[in-house]
Amino acid sequence: MRYKVVGALAASTLLVAGLAACSNDTGSSSGSGGSSTVTWALLTSEKPAADLVKAAYEKANPGVTINYTISDVDNYQTTTRTQLSSGTAPDVIYTWAGDGNPMAMTVVQKAGLIVDLSNEPFASKIPSGIAPVTSIDGKTYVAPITFSGIGAAYNQTAMDAAGLKAPTTWTELLAFCGSAKSMGKSAFALAAGTPWNTQLIPYALTPTLVYGPNPDFAAQMSAGKATFADSEWKTAFDKYKQMQDAGCFQDGDLGTSYEDALKLVATGDAFGSVQVNSSIAAMQQDAASGTQFSYLPMPANDDATSTRMAGAVGASYAVNAASKNKDAAIKFVDWLASDEGSTVYATAVAGIPAIPSTTFKADPLLATFIKYQTDGKTDPFMDQLWPNSKVQQVHFEVLQQLLAGTLSSEDALKQMDAAYAEGEG
Amino acid sequence: MALDRPVRRRKGGIDLNHRRGLWLFLVPAAAIYIFIVLYPSIQGAALSFTDWNGLDPVKNFIGFDNYVKLFHDPKALASVWHTLIIAFTITIVQNLVGLLLALGVNSKIKSRNVLRVVFFAPAVITPVATGYLWQNLLGQKGAVNEFFGFFGIPPVTWLGNQSTAIWAICVVIIWQFAGYSMVIFLANLQGIPQEVIEASMVDGAGPIRRFWSIIRPELAPSLTINLMLSIIGGLKIFDQVWVMTGGGPGGSTETMSTFLYKNAFQFGDFAYGIAIAVVLAILVGIISGGQFVILGRQNRGSK
């Protein structure tokens, strides 16, 4: 048996070495000559920023070329993980802040694959609210570029036409659902057919219900002193189901895809949808010109003053430890996190900079969200503090079952607790 | 005289050498196959006995733990069950539909060439593209529900309902590949001597009798190939499921392929993913091998 392990190890080492030798040298640099190429990997959602950032950086740094590759989340995670383990990943890589995702900072840092960025100028400017998800043991490993929120995006034009107002309390929300239904429309378009979209409503409700009243909840969970099932998460799940029972969502919510849900809001067939703020740009593209949108927090109880929002680091970047071009790569990341870079980036993706920038002018649409951020009324996306990526995947799956009526909220949360208890992985 | 020599060679003792020489032609292909398929596969399979997460440089040997876990994991067992449902449903229905289409376009109807192209066309499309296409067609406001709406049938959430999603996926796969089965059956049908069929007509055999006693036994070779291809395709189905439901809603369409992909690439449990892949490979081997033996016996019997 022992012989087998050694054999397997030797064989896989050979394979990895072979792959590394065969692969193209993507991160090459001519060194002293001053001209160099930095390779940069990012997600489809960041596409609007890619060309603008490339142009601005290359203009400011003659002789440097930025070569970027864009891929969808699933592909990105698969490919980049494989590249990292074989030493062929791009120089600058999109890395999710915190944990709870196969390409999250904690996961790749633990394998020693990303560079310590603590001494870079941006590191000291990271706001304390997001410092925990950008550093490990006091050392910074990712540069946070944008800050995103989860809230209710409304088609304001359709709301005004129908004489409806965005709800600010739970009671108002249920009444809003009733009014929308009586007009033959739905209050909220829900894309429960797209797994990651199922989580958005619990993520919008739990800041008010769980993390606001008990800011230590995540720490208590990781210390084994709290569970999902014995917390207000149960209230959040029950309210989610209550929304469905009250007819807040369109018919066939479980068969609706993300794109379809955005279209329902864009056309006014649904008045709103709980989404990440970057989705508004996509809604605007689908909507008739002149359609106004609004982006507001989602009420979770009847005390409007206690309402909080989920807000977290969106895009963040790490430097590949195996990069042959580390200095140029770090310099590029420094620029991305600077006032100038984050302004170009955040403006392009209709977001806001994670590190407040003096040169940035926000879209008025995001004013409420920015106020929540500056008032400290936001909580990180829940998965960023979960110990493994399985909890989130289980979350998607149990929510579909909850909405289909085949699983109780209690059993759903117990499954999440079981995945959480599997610990780091 | 010059022509005589090769003939004599074939009959003489040089024959053996000649055959042995033919093996040499296999070497390049076999070497490539061993290098890029067999060797990495065995290497990969060895990883299923470790706890590798796909990233860490460290791998620990954990014996059969991943396999033990698999047989105690209700989600893994459910995925095996869903895979078998899909594989057997499409094997039976796709070949039945394919055979009917083949018999239809093998007749003398005028538009048969056009119909052959039309029926085969879906097989040319990438499965991922068909997945997205049907995701739209089967949507709440999609063409399928609109069509049923004409007859007063209320819209059904085909892909969002735990009891209909798996069948909707089967229908899409059958829609796509029935034409493929048809082409194989058609090639076989066209090889059946016309005289035999005409003779049976003269003897007064009706269409059903003619199919059962004359055509059916002749179709054995194409049936073997079709069953084999569709069952293997069904067992390893991934694209359409991934695109249309991602294994949902609530895991009701999770197949072995989607489940192993999730474990390997989304849960960071690479070794467990590989263990599922090894079980899937064994399952495909057993089912297709068994089928080959049984049908092979039948083929010999029917001749």
Describe this structure in a few short sentences:
Chain A is an alpha/beta fold. Helices cover 43% and strands 15% of the residues of chain A. Classes of the chains: A alpha/beta (425), B mainly alpha (303).
What do these coordinates show?
The complex is a heterodimer of chains A (425) and B (303). Chain A is an alpha/beta fold and 425 residues long. Helix content of chain A is 43%, strand content 15%. Chain A has helices at 2-22, 47-60, 73-85, 105-110, 131-134, 156-162, 170-182, 200-211, 217-222, 233-245, 258-267, 279-286, 326-336, 339-348, 367-374, 390-404, 409-421; strands at 36-43, 64-71, 92-94, 135-136, 139-140, 143-144, 146-155, 186-188, 270-276, 293-296, 309-313, 316-319, 352-353, 378-379. In chain A, the strands form three sheets. In chain A, strands 7, 8, 9, 10, 11, 13 and 14 form a seven-stranded mixed beta sheet that branches. In chain A, strand 4 (135-136) and strand 5 form a beta hairpin. Chain A is globular. The model of chain A is unreliable at 1-33 (pLDDT under 50). Helix content of chain B is 74%, strand content 0%. Residues 1-12 of chain B have low confidence and may be disordered. Chain B has 303 residues and is mainly alpha-helical. Chain B has helices at residues 4-11, 14-47, 65-71, 74-105, 112-124, 127-137, 143-150, 165-189, 194-202, 207-218, 220-235, 239-244, 256-266, 270-302. Chain B is globular, with a radius of gyration of 25 Å.
Question: What keyword list fits this structure?
Answer:
heterodimer; A: alpha/beta; seven-stranded mixed sheet; five-stranded mixed sheet; 17 helices; globular; disordered N terminus; B: about 300 residues; mainly alpha; 14 helices
Low-confidence stretches of chain B: 1-12
Contiguous low-pLDDT stretches of chain A (5 residues minimum) are 1-33
Summed over residues and divided by their number, the pLDDT of chain A gives a mean of 88
Query: What helical percentage do the residues of chain B reach?
Result: over 70%
The radius of gyration computed from the alpha-carbon positions of chain B, rounded to a whole number of angstroms, is 25 Å
Q: Summarize the largest interface: chains and residue counts.
A: A-B, 51 and 38 residues
N-to-C CA distance of chain B = 41 Å
Could you state the oligomeric state of the chains shown? heterodimer
Structural class of chain B: mainly alpha
Element string of chain B (H = helix, E = strand): HHHHHHHHHHHHHH
Quote the average pLDDT of chain B: 87
Counting DSSP E segments of at least 2 residues, the number of strands of chain A comes to 14
Radius of gyration of chain A: 22 Å
Helix content of chain A: 40-55%
Assign an overall shape of chain B. Answer: globular
**What percentage of amino acids of chain B are in beta strands?**
under 5%
- Count of separate DSSP helical elements of chain A: 17
The helix tally of chain B amounts to 14
Give the percentage of residues in beta strands of chain A. Answer: 5-15%
**Spatial gap, N to C terminus of chain A:** 25 Å
